[in-house]
Amino acid sequence: MNRKRIVVTIAMVCTMTAVLTFGGRFVGRVSAVAKDTYENIEVFTNVLALVQKNYVDPVSTKQLIEGAITGMLAALDPHSAYLPPDLYKELQVDTRGSFGGLGIEITTKNTVLTVVSPIEDTPAYRAGIKSGDQIIKIQDEFTKDMPLVEAVKKMRGPKGTKIHLSLRREGVLNLMEYTLTREVIKIQSVKSRMLEKNYGYVRITQFQERTDDDLERALSNLEHQNGGPVSGIILDLRNNPGGLLTQAVKVADEFVDSGLVVYTDGRLESQKQKYFAHKAGSHTDFPMIVLVNGGSASASEIVAGCLQDHKRALILGTQTFGKGSVQTILPLDESAAIRLTTARYYTPNGRSIQATGITPDVIVDITPITQAKAEGGPGFPAIREENLPRHFEGKGKSAPGNENKSIQEEPEEMPPEQEGELGKDPQLDRALELLKSWNVFKTVVAQNAP
């Protein structure tokens, strides 16, 4: 069968499928769609034939088709991608919280790989790689225009093997060179401790398959350490890049006993979903403050937005990343898949945070002390969804238009390695002060009640 007949067959299949789906009333419209599809498929097959005939080296049809799929999805938005067998397998490992690599969440900004945030207690974090650093080279290969999934593949590898990264940090004249040793990254998604008597601290680093169970154990351990119920909790979601939507819902459900947690809206009915809280097992008998920053994304924003809308917690920190879209993994066969943006998600009050983020109730800014500042250069600006090429806008209420009026506080400086330490972390210190004030106010009101 020649190429022309292949194109005709594809077009006929498209036409028949559309007619069977929509019925005779839309024949005119379907014919127009089918004609457009046919013409563009013909262009594609022409290019395919020209490349195979004229390219300097022989190239397989599979290689060209996979490249076309990769480009097709990359043209949509920053989060849709083709997952060949090796990356699809790694994605499945990721959500279980154990994989081999360096421990950094990355994105692409202006065709350059950029660090969103390092994952706590990983080779990248310990080496001092920062949010906003640009990855210029992996080994000796320049990363400009390198697909995100390919970069991830290159940085992953067996435990104990070394990899060299060349990073650019604004304000630093020369490239910063790092030789890192890959580790099996076992992310402890929930960490907790008592800050002082009656006040607990819980940090969620990522939303994985067991995060809700880990959180429940952490809350029980805090009560045990305290010798009874706590008077307040600080939930730290800073630099948490997100994870599983289902886990975000379950974590929010731990602190809200009724009502909507989040809802998604897409083109298909299956993408219009509502998730509700349940009374059983909810912890609603203590005040909460949630810490967020520009590295808090996706699932972190779902939790923060839910607790803010329900007035269950005070949100403190800086504007979040603004990733308000849902990605669905759609398998192509048993080994490969595509990651496709299929819906936007909304907070209970109907706020879309896509490209805007969650605005804290109390803004406490922190300017990390970086090498750039030490050398007199400006700090690197935070990377958020709105900075990414091909990002799309949210629909519905925008986050800054919410009814929560933010309190602006002066920026303070803090070395990032001291994050989470009382007396060295201004956001945490401020949160604890507010929790104590909250309880003092409640006590005074109760004493003066008639």
Strand order, sheet with most strands: 10-11-12-15-16-20-22
N-C termini distance: 90 Å
Low-confidence stretches: 1-27, 369-380, 399-404
Name the CATH superfamily assignment of the largest domain.
2-enoyl-CoA Hydratase, Chain A, domain 1
Q: What is the CATH topology descriptor of the largest domain?
A: 2-enoyl-CoA Hydratase, Chain A, domain 1
Radius of gyration over all CA atoms, rounded: 25 Å
Reported for the largest beta sheet, the result is:
7 strands, mixed
Total domains: 3
CATH class group of the largest domain: Alpha Beta
Number of helices: 11
Q: What level of helicity do the residues show? A: 25-40%
Large-scale geometry: globular
How many E-type strands? Answer: 22
Mean pLDDT, nearest integer? Answer: 83
User: What class would the helix/strand composition place it in?
Assistant: alpha/beta
Estimated share of beta-strand residues: 25-35%
Describe the fold and architecture.
The chain is 33% helix and 26% strand. With 450 residues, the protein is α/β, with parallel strands linked by helices. The protein folds into 3 domains: 57 residues, no CATH class; 89 residues, PDZ domain (Pdz3 Domain, Roll), CATH 2.30.42; 242 residues, Alpha-Beta Complex (2-enoyl-CoA Hydratase, Chain A, domain 1). It has a 7-stranded mixed β-sheet with strand order 10-11-12-15-16-20-22, with helices on both faces. Helix 7 packs parallel to helix 8. The longest helix is centred in the first third of the chain and has 28 residues. The protein is globular and about 90 Å long. The protein starts with a helix and ends with a helix.
